[in-house]
Amino acid sequence: MEASRDDFVIAIRSAFLKKGNQQRFSLLTLILFSIIFLILGNFNFKIINFNKTVIKEIIYLSSFIVTIPENGIKKSFNNISNHFDYYDDYQVTKNELQKLKDKDLSKQIITFENIELKKLIDDYFVEDSQTYAKVLIDKESPFLRSIIINKGSKNGVKAGMVVYDDIYLVGKVVEVNFITSRVLLISDINSKIPVTIQPLNIQGIMSGLDKQKGNLQYIKDDKLINKNNEELIVVTSGSGGVFKSGIPIGKIDFTDSSSKKNLVVKFYRNFSQLIYVKISSNAKKNIDLDSSNKKNFEINKDKILKINDALEDIKLLQQQKIIAEEIRNKLETENTKLKENLINAEKEITKKNKNIQKNKDKNENIKFLELNLLYGHKCRKSFFKPTLFNINTNEYRACVFNEGPINKN
Amino acid sequence: MINTNRKINSFLFRYTPVALLYITILNEIDFNNSEFKYFSFNFVYILIFYYSLKRDGGIGYIFIFIAGLFNDVMNGIPMGLSSLCYLLLCAAAVYLRNITLRPNLMKDWLFFLTTILFLNFITFSYLFFFFNYEANYFDEMINIIFTFFFYLIFSYLFKTYDNFILSRYN
Fold first, then answer.
1. CA nearest A61 in B: which residue?
2. Which residues of A touch B40 (CB under 8 A)?
3. Which pTM value belongs to this model?
4. In chain B, where the domains are located
5. Which of A103, A211, A311, A351 is 20 to 30 A (C-alpha) from B46?
6. What CATH class does B2-169 carry?
7. A140·B33 Cβ contact <8 A
8. What are the 10-residue block averages of pLDDT along chain A, 409 residues in total?
9. Which of residues 63-102 of B touch A (CB under 8 A)?
10. What is the complex's ipTM, to 2 decimals?
11. Are A92 and B52 in contact (CB under 8 A)?
């Protein structure tokens, strides 16, 4: 019994204390170093933070260099696959562009109106500072979904700044080094984002679920969602003040939601395809409601009203135009029909005129024959009446119709 | 010429695991958090455990320590945690080597499972109690299971590679 305990102790001691060939430190020393690192990491001393920042910078840059070939392959693969999708994308984009063009005017007006209303309730944020950054490393960890960007405190990046891809929310800056920063993606399980489900206007909290999806929690009024059948969009609610309200995140994916209480949000953007991101901080626009501002509000209100009126007029005119076009089309069709009818009628008239002419000729001949029987002898030339006319001459015909020779007296 | 070849083979034999370790940690393709929902495994654990078990001195404790720091920074977890886990894994492997007279793959395999369960327990406990990290336990369970199963495959591959290099070396 004692011998086996001795063996155990010897084995453990050998494992922890024995230095291998060309080893400078024993395992125990390095384990102690690790524990010291862990403990020091919890203190917020300037020198520790500085050292941590330096180590992080070195590691990020080495990782960036190591991932160059991999990123090159990925990029080439994406380019090739994108190339094959271009035509289909073009058709879809073309259709979408047409639809968006139609919606654009209304959207501009609504945006303008929205800004004015937000100003009124003191919830209007303006972009305080804005910078673009390149994604250096997109390494996913089981504990943290984040990206490393090539802008740090040197470029004015601060912890808490909001990160966008185009207009869509990507995450927020959680760690700032001198020339790099770490961005916590909204797909991370620890990112709790206050959101609003539109158009139902239901509040909730979203946390990450996987790369492309988030999970909605603490939803109020889920009965409304149960009744709903239309597409539901998830945007930031602005609660808590970290994110401004109305930043688009994604839409609710009912096909993936196991129940309507456990709602899944499908993000608009694919976070594994990020190349450049926009970092911005938001600040509330300070507005003092003095008389000039009130005047501005009034002017803007008038403008909005005028624009709304103009929009309604345009809509009316558009409707009138549509009706007028319909009428014109109908008239054109009728006109074509009438033209055809006219041509047919003209043809019939010509036919009938010809018949009339024929009948006239016929009647004249019949009359001539009748009169010829009665008065032909009075007009016919003979031995005894040499002054009269030969048959089949016009004079004879005239004589018959006259019922005898024309009396010259 | 023969000396140069020997030197190259010796270098390959010694530093291929180190290169693999660092490339795995620094690269964006990470099997530890793969694209697939139900598939992931910790390649670094397999690599460190295998080489610490099979070679005297393993990959090199200092290399493993630094690799742990790199991994912490890359994954955004407190610095020192991965180093601690990797070194404990080394310690477990060295202890197993010390007490083993006749190496047996099944014993190594089961010891590996016990060790990675213990290490994951340490990681989660630390992250949960000190940093309030919220981890997905189901994903981690899958990760542990696949790491456990893949140990067999990778130990075979590593053994084949080592034999190949050693045959050229001799």
1. B26
2. 142
3. 0.58
4. 2-169
5. A211
6. mainly alpha
7. yes
8. 65 71 74 86 79 84 83 85 83 85 72 72 64 81 79 85 87 88 86 83 83 80 69 82 82 69 81 84 60 72 83 88 92 94 94 94 91 86 83 87 75
9. 64-65, 68-70, 73-81, 83-84, 87-88, 90-92, 94-95, 98-99
10. 0.82
11. no
